[in-house]
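To: structure subgroup
Subject: Chain for Friday's discussion

All,

I'm putting the inputs and outputs inline so they're searchable in the archive.
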Amino acid sequence: MVNYIWAVMAIGGIIYAMINGTMEEVNKAIFKSADDAVVLAISLISVMVFWLGITKIAEAAGLLNGLVKMAKPFISRLFPDIPKEHPAMGYILSNLTANFFGLGNAATPMGIKAMEEMKKLSNSPRASRSMITFLAINTSSLTLIPTTVLAVRMKYESHSPTEIVGATLLASIISFIGAILIDRIFYEIRRRRGRHV
């Protein structure tokens, strides 16, 4: 559906530009934005590589394992349907850790693997309770260092690119807690309705 909306908007914009005789400006904007996208993507690579390297160092030093061990009791309570030693739990923890350090691109493959493992556990065509909880938490994304946003701010020469870190951390904590609360509220509503059916 979203693809159709984008297609309608793009075609509508081109037709409007043709009617108003501003096609040259549209062409310039298309090529400039394509050029900016390539430059931005290349500039983001260096920041992503840096933080992935830091994460690898933390992993080799045992810091990530320590973080995983500290988070495991909390995560086990969030996902009571998943056995503690199941592979899904490891993927969930790895995904949340990568998101915590602002490595969304690195977190995605682990998130997909976590969903695949949870799907095997549920044996149902519908999303399980754990899958819904994981999606809610992943969408809220508790983030200590917003790596991508910092890279974009540096690329566009912000005077103080790191000034958003505190606000971003606070916003992500609030959204994380909100996601958990909403997930639990809706789960309780569905469970109670199930009892009365």
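Points worth raising on Friday:
The chain has eight helices and no strands.
Residues 23-60 form the longest helix (38 residues).

D.
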